[in-house]
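Please decode residue identities from the backbone states below.
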């Protein structure tokens, strides 16, 4: 099966954002309701989980990219996380990655669905980290179109373990804002001292 989309632009964008994060921002709140360091740790784990999904390597449920405290974030995270993200993108460029079912974090799903979940994780967490650390994020229109189609039927209450309650966003809003709303994000979230944005889901 021919790859349906390329994860490289999104992976590169998130890698650049991670690389630019200053140590002084590691304890800052994010829209994901966890500190920056914990979200980077999560991205480190999910990148490996979804790379393995593309190659059909079973890492088992123990490798599920759960949210942690950030305590196991590797010291070399500025190089390790981007390397994993780019390896993930390369793995999904192989036509075989899109065939049959695969597993990510102990959950079995059709390979094209896994690719969409990976894209969602990458784009949304890139936005989370960009917003938390004062960076700008540019998302490809093609990626936003894939995500909007993928997320449009998300129930209002969200999907336990994946999406929190949706944030109502008008149909005339920018596509990125609509995508964020489906994942429980407030597109206008800004970091405030002592506030970790309780409305977010991940």
């Amino acid at each position: 099966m021919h790859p349906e989309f390329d994860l490289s632009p999104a992976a590169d964008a998130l890698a650049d954002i991670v690389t630019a994060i200053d140590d002084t921002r590691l304890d800052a709140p994010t829209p994901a309701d966890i500190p920056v360091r914990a979200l980077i740790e999560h991205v480190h784990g999910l990148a490996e989980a979804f790379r393995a999904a593309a190659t059909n390597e079973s890492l088992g449920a123990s490798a599920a990219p759960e949210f942690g405290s950030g305590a196991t974030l590797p010291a070399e995270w500025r190089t390790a996380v981007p390397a994993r993200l780019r390896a993930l993108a390369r793995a999904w460029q192989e036509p075989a990655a899109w065939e049959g079912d695969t597993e990510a974090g102990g959950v079995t799903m059709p390979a094209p669905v896994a690719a969409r979940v990976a894209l969602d994780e990458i784009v949304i967490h890139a936005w989370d980290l960009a917003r938390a650390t004062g960076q700008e994020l540019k998302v490809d229109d093609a990626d936003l179109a894939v995500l909007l189609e993928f997320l449009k039927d998300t129930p209002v209450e969200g999907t336990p373990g994946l999406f929190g309650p949706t944030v109502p966003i008008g149909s005339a809003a920018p596509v990125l804002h609509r995508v964020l709303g489906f994942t429980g994000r407030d597109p206008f979230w800004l970091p405030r001292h002592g506030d970790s944005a309780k409305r977010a889901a991940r």
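Observation: Residues 111-133 form the longest helix (23 residues).
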